[in-house]
């Protein structure tokens, strides 16, 4: 399986996951042109996508969805509540409703040769999910917009080959920053976003000897930066109650405005 971040950050998210015969996007939160250019850079085209997995209806995850749906007619998958919210989002525009396929958390489905396993996440959206994708013995996941994690999340992220995991903010930067208090409270809350520290702590609970790559994603532009996220997560893994050191694994940070490393397992 392959995984590549086309864009990841608080301003827009679009992740490619696929095999030789099946190509998926997780979210379409950037312009259709950026999606096409990003896919072109890894030898693919938007028209080749077999499905778009939608995590939730916030604009940084669906900004390009309407354009892509109208131009290419790609099937889209999300929970019923997410689909309903998207259909009532004026910025998406008119979309052929037959392209939407409702899914349920914890109920696997298949697109081509990929088994998709959605699972619930704690975020202030209608009914948000993250996704694990499997092909043969390989397993990748995209898990962002996590206000918190618990044993359920930890269980869903076991046995992965590649994990793109949220490391949204540095708590001190957020607290001292210019965001209004209600927004700070939302981000820090149980239905907000995962801090660098919490990301490292969660990572320490899902690491195993055979994991190939960890990609940190959905960084806040205002309250985080790549080096800080990377160092904090590595430190949390090293200091945590697990047998690993932060330097034992390949960890990178997904870029906000550029295509990131193409990972194949």
TrEMBL record:
Q: Give the InterPro entries listed for this entry.
A: Metallo-B-lactamas (IPR001279), RibonucZ/Hydroxyglut_hydro (IPR036866), WalJ/YycJ-like (IPR052533)
Q: Which segments cross the bilayer?
A: none
Per UniProt, residues of the Metallo-beta-lactamase domain are: 11-193
Taxonomic superkingdom: Bacteria
Q: Which SUPFAM superfamilies match?
A: Metallo-hydrolase/oxidoreductase
Q: What is this protein called?
A: MBL fold metallo-hydrolase
Organism for this UniProt entry: Roseburia yibonii
């Amino acid at each position: 399986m392959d995984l590549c971040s086309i864009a990841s950050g608080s301003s827009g998210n679009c992740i490619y996951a696929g095999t030789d015969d099946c190509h998926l996007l997780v979210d379409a939160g950037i312009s259709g042109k950026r999606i096409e250019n990003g896919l072109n850079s890894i030898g693919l085209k938007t028209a080749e996508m077999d499905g778009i997995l939608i995590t939730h209806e916030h604009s940084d995850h669906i900004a390009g969805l309407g354009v892509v749906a109208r131009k290419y007619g790609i099937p889209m998958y999300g929970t019923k509540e997410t689909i309903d919210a998207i259909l009532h989002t004026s910025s998406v525009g008119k979309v052929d409703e037959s392209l939407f396929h409702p899914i349920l958390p914890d109920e696997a489905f298949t697109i081509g040769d990929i088994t998709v396993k959605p699972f619930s996440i704690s975020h202030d959206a209608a009914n948000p999910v993250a996704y694990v994708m499997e092909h043969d013995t390989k397993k990748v996941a995209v898990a962002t917009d996590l206000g918190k994690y618990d044993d359920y999340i930890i269980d869903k992220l076991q046995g992965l080959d590649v994990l793109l995991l949220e490391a949204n903010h540095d708590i001190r930067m957020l607290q001292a920053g210019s965001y209004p208090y209600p927004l700070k409270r939302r981000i820090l809350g149980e239905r907000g976003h995962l801090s660098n520290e919490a990301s490292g702590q969660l990572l320490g609970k899902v690491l195993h000897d055979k994991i190939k790559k960890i990609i940190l994603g959905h960084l806040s532009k205002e309250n985080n930066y790549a080096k800080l996220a990377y160092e904090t997560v590595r430190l949390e893994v090293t200091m945590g109650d697990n047998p690993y050191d932060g330097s034992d694994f390949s960890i990178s940070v997904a870029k906000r405005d550029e295509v990131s490393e193409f990972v194949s397992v």
